[in-house]
Amino acid sequence: MPYFISTKIFKQQAKILVRHWPFAGLKNSHIRNILSQLYGYKDNHDYLKQLAEYDSGLNIAPLHALSETMVGLHYKEWVIKMAKLGAINHIQAKTLLHKLWPAYLSAQNPASDKLYSAKIRFHGACNDFLDRKSLNTTIEYLFNDPPSIKDCIEAIGVPHPEVGAISINNSWVTFRNLLTDGDSVEVFPNPCPQVSPDMALPFKPEGEIKFLLDVHLGGLARYLRMAGFDCMHQQEDNGDQWLAETSASDNRILLTRDIGLLKRAVVDQARWVRNILTESQFCEIVLHYDLSPHFQALTRCIKCNGHIAAIEKHAVKEYVPQGVYKQQKDFKICNNCQQIYWKGSHYDKMQDILRSSKTRL
Ligand SMILES: [Zn+2]
């Protein structure tokens, strides 16, 4: 049943809408139709007809009276309706509704209030990004226009590459899924063994595991190269955009201590390195990506990431200390920077670190 709006108030409200409509060019007739439909009439013609019948006493079915309570009750429904009728977003519709009913809405529905809410729970390592009061609890997320679940998760603080799977109302979804009012969301860390492979979000590239490390992780890059992994690391800071784009184009797992970098849309496979000390960082990455079966010590140059290969002993005579030349039989050389390697004390230390990283797992 439609609501009673006097023609005087109707005209005033139509003027308000024309004045405050988010974009120009909307015809007055369209505005009047939107208002009529908002209050339950088929269109403006229907409104005028029913009001004339009402005024003359012909209307058998009475119109609803509008009160502060009724406007408050219909608030959410009208925001959605006005947004749909006027092809505007929910925030714009809400602002307009507050202009129409300033006295009725200001107190009980402040314009700053969000219309919808969803309940979100983060599991496992996703909690590393939350503040203390949000740890392992259900968070209420408030919103107006439905965000993608990816935007919502990142707004709370968890970068998308750290997410392994998402379920909404007990169904697995992708990042593009839009949040709707009343949704119950579960967010699992990366990797997520509970989810079927086709719904798992990116974890690591197919084939060879390659890394790209930010400028602050030079120590970790050397450790990973020591274990034989391909690690791109630049001494100079090339900026976040370069890191994000290179990681995507070269199919490298991006390792960083910068959470903001992980939220860049182009970044796909990445991890926020939790630990501060290099040796602990190395163990963390070995454990997370299950790297120990792939260790190949003395295959990659620690300095420049080039490949190293065996070289005849006599060829290095001039380039290594005399004692080393006498004691060692086998030498290797980086085919990029010509650094020479042998199984000396640094090799023993390297083996110790690799061994201890395995035993810590
Ligand atoms: Zn080298």
From TrEMBL:
It holds the Pfam family Ub-Mut7C. Residues 210-353 form the Mut7-C RNAse domain. Residues 118-190 form the Ubiquitin Mut7-C domain. PANTHER family: MUT7-C DOMAIN-CONTAINING PROTEIN, MUT7-C RNASE DOMAIN-CONTAINING PROTEIN. This is Mut7-C RNAse domain-containing protein.
